[in-house]
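Note to self: keep these together.
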Amino acid sequence: MSKIIIGIVGEISAGKSTATEYIKNKYSATTFKFSDSLRDVANRMHIEQSRSNLQLLSTILRQNFGEDLLSKILAEDVRGAEAKIIITEGIRRTSDITYLQEVPNFKIIAIKTDERIRFERLTQRSENIDDQNKTWEQFQQDGAQEAEQQIKAVMEKADFTLDNNGSIEDLCIQIDSLLTKLQ
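Structure:
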């Protein structure tokens, strides 16, 4: 079996991490997040890892080192990975897939989830330090940020789309079916 490289794209709290963890645990996949390198920089600089700080850091780095910087980083990480299934999570821009599309067997999977469900999940999970106390208005403002704007354009390029408006079990069934097709 050759490598399967999956790029997961979706709006804030669509279920990208849930899908990634499921595939990682069930199929022994290696995972890479676009935010990993941003979190590494934030940690090194002792900057709080809030969503707004990570978005700003992403913008600054891309403006100064190229829109495709994060794609370059992840494509190199993917090429060096030994696993048979590799997941890149958190694609937000078309430039994020520039170098990943050059990697054989790269497929984009979009995860679609209604906005209200995504808001409820965000405030329950608290992935970022400022998520738990987020208001509906703040959530909508986050979704309007530059880093979130191009997600829909990338989702339109997806090879496959999963519906995550139901239970985790429903999402897992869709993932299993998809991975059976890809293997």
